[in-house]
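Moderator note: this is an archived Q&A kept for reference. The question asked for a predicted structure of one protein chain; the sequence and the answer are reproduced below.
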Amino acid sequence: MTARYETVIVGGGHAGLALSYHLSRLGRPHVILERGRVAERWRSERWDSLMFQFPNWSLRLPGQEYCGDDPDGFSSREEVIAFIERYREAVDAPVRTGVRVDRVAPIDGGFRLETTEGPIEAAHVVIATGPYQEPILPAVRHALPPSVVQVHACDYRNPARLPAGAVLVVGSGASGCQIVEDLLATGRTVYLSVGRHRRYPRRYRGHDMFWWMERIGALDQTLEERPEARERPNPLVTGVGGGHEIDLRDYAAAGVALLGHLRAVTGSRLHLADDVAALLAAGDESVGVFTRAVDAYIARFGLTAPAEAPPPPGSPQAVSPCGALRAPIRELDLAASGIMSVVWATGFRRDFGWIDAPVLDERGEPIHRRGVTGCAGLYFLGLPWLHKLKSSVLCGVGDDAAHLADHITVGAMRTRPGLIRRA
């Protein structure tokens, strides 16, 4: 007999658990289907030395705050996993692990889910599989020599897993930069193909940048207010070493060769764009935008905060490899440079091809309004900009989870007030 639930949540990460908390609070029956373990991506798709980008005090989910003795410190990968696992236990979330959902399709009265443990029916389905689903790997990778080992950031673990020799890291977001530092710490020669980024001060006027982002309302921005924000890179900061800001020029001073965008590969030669200086300059612009917003907030509310000059932009001589005054590298021979591996820190795309319902646009992105789709009973949760900038992060997903729980409850009470699970 086909199992039936009022609500099925697909994904056992922090978003799915937050929704479970709110559904339980409202007395609504549900189940979470998780393909692996709770917080699986944190467990199996992150490198060993990863540190959470934001301070420990920002580790919070509905009903659970950070309770450790280092609120201004930064958590390791294992500590974040432990926080999420404690949350699962605290809210007694009904998680079924090791169950993969291969298809979701509307049926009369709800949805049918094809899973690795057989079919399931539900009145409501919430897709909470997160934003980091299918690794983006550029087509140019196919032109690299077969002797060069290639891994995406989600498959990188530590320098020892890579072959001896120099490493090319492609992408200068938070992942790419933490991996660069991980490699430098073991004495590796590193080349970094720079991409779009936004440089932020780690601390400013007495507080961490994330503290200020909460206070000035940046985390509560919506796309209706700032439609251009969807295309902006995330702020570039790290929690490594107690937390510090990232200026790619510091990497150059430490011996990292900063390269432009990788345009093409011919044999063993890389063809690179001459755009490092422009990318660094564009990254600097966000420093001034952020610090001016903080200064204005302090003045507006008459706050007491230590005076501090914004971090200055980097010096022009540091934009070329190793900080030397020389022309940018336009071509690089892999063999001559000793590059034996490439780490693609090139991000992720959504993978919703298993959803057989008219809720995706031509790019495969969900069509919704704050997680509510046009297909009654089908929802999304935990995606960037689902409603606000903070919608996908630990401290922000709870608001959207509460909204969807209320929406599900109203629908359930209106159409199926007595529906409960039956096996």
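Archived answer notes: Confidence is low (pLDDT under 50) at residues 315-325, 417-423.
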